[in-house]
Write a structure and sequence with these properties.
about 75% helix, mainly alpha, elongated, 10 helices, two-stranded antiparallel ribbon, about 280 residues, 2 strands
C-alpha cells in the first residue's frame, strides 16, 4: 500500500488530474449554456421583450447546439472513466487521454453549428421560450442531417451513459460482495455510485423511451416530449458540482479497491514462491 500512497493520483480530498480536466470542461459547457440560454431568457423576461439585438441573437442561435452536446459527451467520458477505474483500479490514464477526449467532444459538438452555418441559416426569436433559434430546424433540405447530428450528439451519448451507469451499479455490487463490507471507503463509495448512477438513469430513461417511440413511428404528445427533455436537463447545470463533491468518496473507494488488489497480488506471488520452493526441494 505504500507504493499506492506514493504514486496514486486519487488522493483523499482532491480531484485526480483527469477528473479535473473533465469537470472543467463541464463547467465551460455550463458557462456557454448560461450565455446562450439563461442570460437571454432572464434579460428578456425582465425587459418584457428581446432587447439584445440581432448580432447576439444570431450568435446564440448558432451556438445553442453546442452546450448540451459537450455536457452529455463529457459525462459519458467521466462515466466510462469511472467504470474503468473500478474494473482496473491499478491502471491510471495520462492527461493526454483527457486532452484528446475533450478535443473530440468539442469537434463533435460543433457539427450542428457547422451545418447551420453551411446552409447559411438565419435566426428567429421564439417568444414562447424567449430564445433565438437557427432556421436550420425549419429547412427541409437539412432535415436528415439535423436528425443524424441530433442522434450523434445527444441520443447516442445519453443511451450510452445510461448503459454504462447500469454497468457501474452491477460492477460495484459485484465488488461489494467480493471485498466485503469492512471498510468505510468501500461502503461510502458504493452508496455514492448508487446515488449518482441512479440519478443519471432516472433522468435519462424517459428521454430514451420517447426517442425510441418516435423513431418507431409512434406519436408522442409534445408536452410529454418536452417534459422528458427538461427532465434530462435537470442534471446538466449541476454536473460539475455533482462530480466534484462525489470525487473524494469515489477516489477513496477506488484506492481501497487498489489496495485489496495489491494484497491479492502479493498473496498470489507469495503462494507461487512457496510452491516453487517446494518443487525445487522435492526435485
Amino acid at each position: 500500500s505504500s507504493g499506492i500512497n506514493a504514486e496514486w493520483p486519487l488522493r483523499p480530498g482532491k480531484l485526480d488530474r483527469i477528473s479535473i480536466l473533465l469537470v472543467r470542461n463541464l463547467a465551460v459547457a455550463d458557462i456557454l449554456y448560461s450565455l446562450v440560454t439563461v442570460v437571454p431568457l432572464t434579460i428578456t423576461y425582465f425587459a418584457g421583450g428581446y432587447v439584445l439585438g440581432d448580432v447576439y441573437c444570431f450568435i446564440t442561435a448558432h451556438l445553442a447546439f453546442i452546450p448540451a452536446s459537450v455536457n452529455f459527451n463529457t459525462v459519458l467520458i467521466i462515466t466510462a472513466y469511472r467504470l474503468r477505474m473500478i474494473i482496473v483500479p491499478l491502471n491510471v490514464d495520462s492527461k493526454r487521454f483527457a486532452h484528446v477526449a475533450i478535443a473530440l467532444i468539442w469537434l463533435v459538438s460543433f457539427a450542428a453549428t457547422s451545418i447551420s452555418l453551411g446552409f447559411k441559416s438565419d435566426f428567429i426569436f421564439v417568444p414562447g421560450n424567449a430564445r433565438c433559434v437557427s432556421t436550420l430546424y425549419f429547412n427541409p433540405a437539412a432535415a436528415v442531417m439535423v436528425r443524424a447530428v441530433t442522434i450523434l450528439q445527444v441520443v447516442l451519448p445519453v443511451i450510452t451513459i445510461t448503459i454504462i451507469n447500469v454497468a457501474l451499479l452491477v460492477v460495484a455490487y459485484q465488488k461489494r460482495r467480493k471485498n466485503g463490507r469492512n471498510t468505510a471507503a468501500n461502503w461510502k463509495g458504493y452508496i455514492t455510485i448508487i446515488l449518482v448512477s441512479g440519478l443519471m438513469i432516472c433522468s435519462s430513461t424517459p428521454f430514451i423511451i420517447f426517442a425510441f417511440l418516435k423513431t418507431s413511428g409512434i406519436k408522442v404528445h409534445p408536452s410529454l416530449d418536452l417534459m422528458a427533455y427538461h427532465f434530462l436537463l435537470i442534471t446538466v447545470g449541476g454536473n460539475p458540482v455533482l462530480y466534484t463533491i462525489t470525487n473524494r468518496r469515489f477516489g477513496n473507494y477506488v484506492k481501497d479497491l487498489a489496495k485489496k488488489n495489491c494484497l491479492e497480488v502479493n498473496e498470489n506471488v507469495s503462494r507461487g514462491s512457496m510452491q516453487l520452493t517446494v518443487l525445487e526441494e522435492t526435485s
